[in-house]
What does this fold into?
Amino acid sequence: MTKDTQKERFTRWGMVKYFMHGCTRFFIFSIVASFLVTILEMLIPQIIRSTVDSVIGDKPFAFPAVVNGWISDIGGAPYLRTHLWVISITIIVMALFVALFRYATNQLNSIAAERLQQNMRDKLFSHIQKLPFTWHMQNKTGDIIQRCTSDVERVRIFIAEQLVSVVRIVIMMILSLFFMFSMDLRLGAVAAATVPVIIAYSGFFFSRIGRHFKECDDNEGILSTIAQENLTGVRVVRAFGREDYERKRFEKQNTYYTGLWVHLMKLMSYFWGAGDLITGIQVVLVLSLGSAFCVHGTLTTGEFIAFLTYNGMLIWPVRQLGRVISEMSKAGVSIDRIRYIMNTPEEKDRPDATEPDMHQDITFDHVTFSYEENVPVVKDVSFTVKAGTTFGILGSTGSGKSTLMHLLDRLYDLPEGSGSIRIGDTDIRDIKAQYLRRNIGMVLQEPYLFSRTIGENISITDRSMPMSDIRTAARLASVDDAITGFKNGYDTMVGERGVTLSGGQKQRTAIARMLTQKAPIMVFDDSLSAVDAETDAKIRSALNRHLKDSTVILIAHRVTTLMNADKIMVMDKGKIVEMGTPDELMAKGGVYKRIYDMQLTMSEDDVFTGNPFEEVEAENAAKAAGRDAAAETDDKPGKNASGNSAAVKEV
Ligand SMILES: Nc1ncnc2c1ncn2[C@@H]1O[C@H](COP(=O)(O)OP(=O)(O)OP(=O)(O)O)[C@@H](O)[C@H]1O
Ligand SMILES: [Mg+2]
It folds into this structure.
């Protein structure tokens, strides 16, 4: 992950507030309801205490004056003694309210948490859609998905389950201690003394266990990556007979992962066991001292019963506090991981961005570009594609052809001072990005089809596209016959990453999809490589008829694909090595001619081992050195035993 150096858009809390938009009131009501539950629960032991001491016993009531007033109004202790059901009803009514408020707490909290999660997913997805292409290239898809799923879930769990608990735990601790101290200072101090011990112990334990949880998380990630790679790369695994190896690799990781969990569970058992021991000692202390105070008459029986109840109420939240603290730190990590995405600036047009006519010449003017600093893959390239013409690009692999098209589509922005790309007179950086991309139809070198029907894949730019338009595009791309041959025709589902289609069918479907865009500029990046020469010619002649007004950029490794282009540019190692009409290039007798000869005249039995780019480069160097090397190297075009075999694949 790259570090975002820009001013951060969100702080931790700022982002939580942003996601909570629209569900804050549910959280507030849920916290209020939880507060009421806790208060009511805390009052019930006071009623029991007074019943024992003042109704069964004869001590005066220890309630506030107002409550004492109500009791004397209905007849005081003598009345209650003969009407015990009044106390029962009071407790039942309070319990009913506890149940009602608890229901409201859970209900409101679930609504708030689910809405919060929905907000988080929606806002993250929408933000990611607007992030620059370079960001997607720099970040691993699996990691982004994990941030949008596991991290979102962890934040939801924390906010849904822990945030309300924090409020409840704090109120319970304060009120229990308050009531305990108000009944007996000494016993209150004994009960309170263990609180810091338990909190420190839980905090220490959960911070230690947090590391183990992280290790489990990381190893779960490794396990799912192995599974995911095997599913996606199933063909490679089968083709190379690696099933056993992959199974063993998975089993090894699975065993390790299981071991981690077993160890973690062991630690958890120690924790709960030791925690029970500490709290057990505390209870024994309170019980023994409390009994002694009762016997000596410094504590009433009612107070002692109430005290024990409050002590129980104190221990639970104290033990939970350690967990809440550790969950809070885990949620903090997740919030930061989500914040990394939300703080990445969206792709934005310049304020004065325009929408110029796209039926104009395309000019690359001294363009230099590097993906990684100081490693240029395109070096000072200048050329013009005349509007309405077909421009062919031929070149060795890695020579920068696709890069030029990515730059034209502004998937990568050309930095200032690295030349410019213009449509007519407008620099493409001054054109609205969406407008530019809408007007440049691009069939990428590795077409991607969605797991939807073929019809939906073709009509992706306009879901209301009539079937006739879809079929016209498919016919032009010579794929209509193949599609109608499927049982479900255009409703055939394309499997994950289009596995049910052959490579050629996939390429042609991508061409059809691009054609529906009806863009004035169309780019075919090696888009006919997976179809046979005959289909290639058929598609090109259909396109020629149909795309008369469009500017077409055709990248190919097959010379025949480019033969009818108005102009051809030949590239090698990021530079232009030749440019001209096909006839001019043939007459010139350079790289283009050699590739032509090699591809069109070699019989299948010929083994070609040379590289026309290197040959011409060597010849030129030799010529420059004043030697005539042509006779030595070009006896038979395209054949050179000393070259390397990569050229067969390259051209
Ligand atoms: N996203 C990227 N990050 C870093 N380097 C890249 C990236 N994309 C391409 N490159 C490098 O840039 C160089 C040019 O790649 P490019 O894809 O433009 O070549 P190409 O001419 O289209 O090749 P091919 O004919 O094989 O499609 C290559 O050396 C490649 O490794
Ligand atoms: Mg390419």
